[in-house]
Design brief:
By secondary structure, the protein is an all-alpha fold. The chain is 62% helix and 0% strand. It contains 5 helices and no strands. It is elongated and about 45 Å long.
C-alpha cells in the first residue's frame, strides 16, 4: 500500500497500485482463507527434508492472495 501511495518512483507506483487495490478489495476473503487452515496438523512430506511442493501449498494457503501476488512476478 505504501509503495502504491508514494510519488517518488512512478514505476513502483504503477506496479503496486493494482496489487494494493486487489488486496484491499479481497481482504475479507484472504483473512478467511488464512483462518480456515489455522490449528490443523499438516503433512510436510518429511521432517528433515520436507517435500518442496507440499511445503509451498502449506505455507501459501490463500489462493486469493497467491493470485494477487502472482502479478508481481
Amino acid at each position: 500500500e505504501a509503495l502504491a501511495e508514494q510519488t517518488d518512483n512512478a514505476e513502483l507506483k504503477a506496479v503496486f497500485t493494482p496489487v494494493a487495490q486487489a488486496m484491499a478489495e479481497n481482504e475479507a476473503a484472504i483473512v478467511n482463507e488464512l483462518n480456515e487452515v489455522q490449528g490443523r496438523s499438516v503433512d510436510m512430506g518429511g521432517y528433515y527434508l520436507p517435500d518442496d511442493e507440499m511445503m509451498n501449498s502449506i505455507m501459501r494457503p490463500s489462493a486469493t492472495l497467491n493470485a494477487i501476488l502472482s502479478q508481481l512476478v
